[in-house]
Amino acid sequence: MSESTATRSRPVEPGIPEASGVECNFIPGPVVTEVPADRPATVCAVDRLVLRFGGRGSPAILKGVSLVIADGEAVAVLGSNGAGKSTLLRCLPRLLEPSEGSVSLLGEDVMSLRRAGLRRLRSRIGFVFQRHNLSTRLSVLSNVIHGAHGRAGALRACHQALAPQELREEAMDCLAQVSLTDLAGRRADQLSGGQSQRVAIARALMQRPEIMIADEPVASLDPSSAEEVMDLFARLMRERGITLIFTSHHLKHALAYGDRVVALKAGLVVEDKPTARLREQDLDWIYDSNDRT
Amino acid sequence: MTATTGPDHGVPHRMGKITPLAFALTVGAAAFVLVSFNHVGLSWEKILGGGPGLARLVSQMFPPDLSRLTPVLVSLLETFQMAVVGTVLGIAFSLPLAVMASAKHAPHPLLRIGFRGLIAFFRTVPDLIWALVFVIAVGLGPAAGTLAIMIDTIGFCARFFAEAMEEADDGPQEALTAMGAGRTGILFSAVYPQVIPSFIATGLFALEKATRSSVVLGLVGAGGIGIELKVAMDFFSYDLACMIIISIFILVLMVEQASGWLRARVL
Ligand SMILES: Nc1ncnc2c1ncn2[C@@H]1O[C@H](COP(=O)(O)OP(=O)(O)O)[C@@H](O)[C@H]1O
Ligand SMILES: [Mg+2]
């Protein structure tokens, strides 16, 4: 494996690309690429990521994970319980501090960011958790407005009563996307599981995210609302062209909503393929016979 | 003792194991309690001998002297106002201090240790001593008592506020962190909404406590009705003293009832 990569000549283009005629451009000079200049083609690159929860001696939970995700992709991360899926997702915006390796998101080197830069980057990335993680004593509307923390600041985004009108209206728009405008005034602890998770999705939409990370977003829901919420979620992301990285322990979800499956086993990537070329039985081996959920 | 079934059944000993150190400490503590009884000079003769004195006091207390009802009620109101202002100030200072003292929210562990120590100091020095200190610092009167109550309230509230914040669910806080919220944003959006019921309950307890202490702070000249009670006692006007005691009792009871009712509503 190492020989083949060593012998293969990498097509490195230093600076100006060859004039191939495909890109016909009357403006002379700068490099022309297919990708809009303000958005990199690769939105997420993870390189040899290692994570240990203790010090140097403790066992690694992630043992060198590498992954490249292109703009607009929907990537399903699969694996049995304890494989390290949640840990991997938390490492991306540095909710967990990786021990080794590098992460780049939206063109920024996550590991080298300092406080303010990291907050700015996080505000562009939605994160939906298995538990809705709403502030349950606040209203649905306040919770959705929380999504604006990154751009509006703590005071204006902490409660709907303090938020400026345009944030309140934008939050109502986000609630409309998940069909929950009629519950805007309700306290978040008065919602069903599916409604709570839709509010969490609306809150993430409020961030105007460029990437959406979702850790088992429907695992705590009953099967029918899980289906419904996952359908809605994946459709919203597809329509907006938002890159989606989600974990699931349902093969069906992964195949239905992912363009690509990345399988983790014991902290290592053991499979990385487009879903179009996979069938359910191809993935059975990822799960040990006894811990399949 | 010589069980034929063998010792392998693992039935625990009746008394559990006791180490020599634990044994020594227990014996020492018991001895200290016995010696203390001896030292405080409590005896049946004293207790029984005090009976007639107490009976005389009670007989002189009744009927209570209602002639000075209005000034006593005015003074009682001032006492309660000391309690209210002291509690409000104490709670206001407790909010930031609790953040500093919370293991999860303090900006630095060293700060946390420092503020924990300060709060413990506020709590462990009794309120009467704080009152003495403030009487010297700001002079006789209710201002001293109010400051004493404020310090006492910080010692009480900041500690329980910090504990409530540490126990707050991590989920919403992690969600806010992931959205790029800062420290203040996380506090106001995820922590305070969760802990407000517990803060209110703690604050109401603090008000009850402050009401009780406000009535005695007058004894050291820190304002409030305590001074009226002391003067009445000193001048043997036990019927007036009785009226003051009854009005204090009614105030404290009312505050406790109201606070209990409010607590039941927020929790
Ligand atoms: N905070 C933690 N401290 C120590 N070990 C942890 C912690 N969180 C997760 N782990 C361990 O890391 C492994 C991977 O966990 P996780 O990423 O949650 O798995 P998955 O999401 O794939 O089920 C598990 O063995 C788990 O016990
Ligand atoms: Mg998980």
Automatic annotation (TrEMBL), chain B:
Coiled coil: none
Positions of the ABC transmembrane type-1 domain: 76-259
Broad class of the protein's primary localization: membrane
Family: Belongs to the binding-protein-dependent transport system permease family.
GO cellular component terms listed in the entry, alphabetical order: plasma membrane
Transmembrane segments: 21-40, 80-103, 128-151, 186-207, 214-232, 238-255
Keyword field: Cell membrane, Membrane, Transmembrane, Transmembrane helix, Transport
InterPro entries, alphabetized: MetI-like (IPR000515), MetI-like_sf (IPR035906), PhnE/PtxC (IPR005769)
Annotated GO MF terms: ABC-type phosphonate transporter activity
Membrane topology according to the record: Multi-pass membrane protein
Location in the cell: Cell membrane
Protein name: Phosphonate ABC transporter, permease protein PhnE
Pfam family membership, one: BPD_transp_1
